[in-house]
Amino acid sequence: MPATIRDVAKASGVHVSTVSRAFSAPQLVNAETRAHVLAAAELLGYRPNRAARALITGRTHNIGLIVADIANPFFPPLIKAAESHARGRDYHVFVADTNEDPGVEEELVLALAKQVDGVLLCSPRMSNTQIEQLSREVPLVVVNRPVPGLPAVVMDVAQGARLAMEHLVGLGHREIALLGGPRGSWTNREIRRAATLAARTAGAELVVLGPNAPTEESGSAQAEAVLRAGVSAVLAYNDLMAVGLIDALDHRGVKVPDQISVVGIDDTALSRRTRPMLTTVATPTAAAGRAAVDMLLQHGDDRRTTALVTLQTELVIRDSSGPGPHRTAGPGRRQQPPIDGVASESRE
Amino acid sequence: MPATIRDVAKASGVHVSTVSRAFSAPQLVNAETRAHVLAAAELLGYRPNRAARALITGRTHNIGLIVADIANPFFPPLIKAAESHARGRDYHVFVADTNEDPGVEEELVLALAKQVDGVLLCSPRMSNTQIEQLSREVPLVVVNRPVPGLPAVVMDVAQGARLAMEHLVGLGHREIALLGGPRGSWTNREIRRAATLAARTAGAELVVLGPNAPTEESGSAQAEAVLRAGVSAVLAYNDLMAVGLIDALDHRGVKVPDQISVVGIDDTALSRRTRPMLTTVATPTAAAGRAAVDMLLQHGDDRRTTALVTLQTELVIRDSSGPGPHRTAGPGRRQQPPIDGVASESRE
DNA sequence: TTGAAAGCGCTAACAT
DNA sequence: ATGTTAGCGCTTTCAA
């Protein structure tokens, strides 16, 4: 039987309201009394029941974190950073996984609504309208997608995709495939838009393949389509698909980057572990998690401060991208100085 | 302002207790009345407040999941499976990360205690005594370690380590290093015990290196020690360390498996993505997550059913293990039929 | 500075 | 089958 505020009151010879104040409004209670109370509480192992407190204050000190797929390596660093940051501010975090299902997203937000002070919606696949409606039930911060009227944290993937395309074009590629991501993904649309524009600007051709589930399997599944398209380079929606594609190409005896260059997006942990190591666009996922928590918690104070935080991305050149057929002249294959420490140890 | 049970009562012209029953004890209420109530609730967007309900029932329908490191690829599949399984039974999951710090573990359990019906403690680094004490505050299920008197789910890593050692010895290795894991890890002790025994049985020598943090970096950091030890094979505490070691050996020009064989443990997603693909001991992490949730939830009914569930492991032979110096005769390098589908596509 | 009393949203006896 | 009442653990007026 856990100790309640009443047990502490009895033990320290004061009224429950004094105990309450000793914990939640220390300045309203005599220092000596407070010391007594705290000592008694300590002795009894008393800890305030946050749920009971929430019932009256309306603040649960919990937040919800809803992601598309916990096992997708993109998310764990974000979850970890968000949880750690939230805990530092005395918030606990419910984590839930939608399995990329928009229907589950809504149900999850509604189910958590009463138990949290707000929800971080990461890479949602719902419509803007649905999201706006949900935000009337519980404060929402959207990650990886801007929603008009709501606070959001996004990564500048368009910038990343442009850098990736310029990198490929610079290497002499003129026929490039874009391995598209999931339907309903804002990130996917951004990438596509930026890649299309970059291709047009550079006079290159862009073949769009998709939409696809953002998994290794669907990356592999598109290998045939990539080969049929006759391109010399591929930009993938994420690292997972890039890796799946590389594997499938490998099994077909197609060499990366010798015959086909492949560039990923996200710079997840696996990009440094594959061979060849993956050239990819680094997205600051941990920073995004922390920023989203901050927005959610400060959002309580100044309401309707509908901010949009955009985090920068950068191109990390490793070994999966190499010279293309239209290469004219020039320097070594690196078009930019290596950004990542490990990349400089590439062995070719 | 979210609708409360009173709003629904008013709207449907019945007393609040009837509304309550309509939701939590349907058989006690007239079907017609219930339909009315449910319709009114639907209209108002009413959802029972679980925290308020918990205050009186004592059951929160929440569980806590505490892991050593969310970003360690071992955990996401476990978290995902546990969360999904729990949600299927109408439970929400708090996830927290201790960063491998035993002090944080205790604080976390205590902080969550009042808000959950139980906590899944994954790979805890605390002492048994501490864990037992904590279990008086809140029901605990321990994963990856048996604790006397408490329900637990463990993997038979001893069996896995034995298989791995036999595999290496069978390949002709007689000097083998064990890359130890973190201090306080039961899994680490099990592996060490089993590996030591297997080495003795086979007349091989086992050099134990460690303890180490279970990270890629510390795997890399032990490369020198491995070379100095003059062994021809290494069994690592986990895939992460195995991969780190392979990388570091590679940078030194040492070929795996030609010069040194490396075997990991866990069969995380990365084991299939590294080159060479990692020979490793597969641990059923998703199953462990589900089993732990089941134990926690059923534990409520039949108390003190201190069960220990042990899940089997198996050796997955891929490309990072090869013939050793003492190889006598025999068949191709595969000592066992490949267990994993991908392994059969290994290209040598 | 502290106590008394009301009540957050809900369930659980106990009546009827 | 439904209404009444009390109260879960806590905070917060309002008095004193």
From TrEMBL, chains A, B:
| Species whose genome carries this gene | Catellatospora chokoriensis
InterPro entries, per the entry: HTH_LacI, LacI/GalR-like_sensor, Lambda_DNA-bd_dom_sf, Peripla_BP_I
Could you list this entry's UniProt keywords, alphabetically sorted: DNA-binding, Transcription, Transcription regulation
Query: Where on the tree of life does the source sit, at the highest rank?
Result: Bacteria
CDD domains reported for this sequence: HTH_LacI, PBP1_LacI_sugar_binding-like
Start and end residues of each HTH lacI-type domain: 3-57
Cite the Pfam families for this sequence: LacI, Peripla_BP_3
Example GO molecular function term? transcription cis-regulatory region binding
- Region annotation (Disordered) ranges: 317-348
Task: Write down what this protein is called.
Answer: LacI family transcriptional regulator
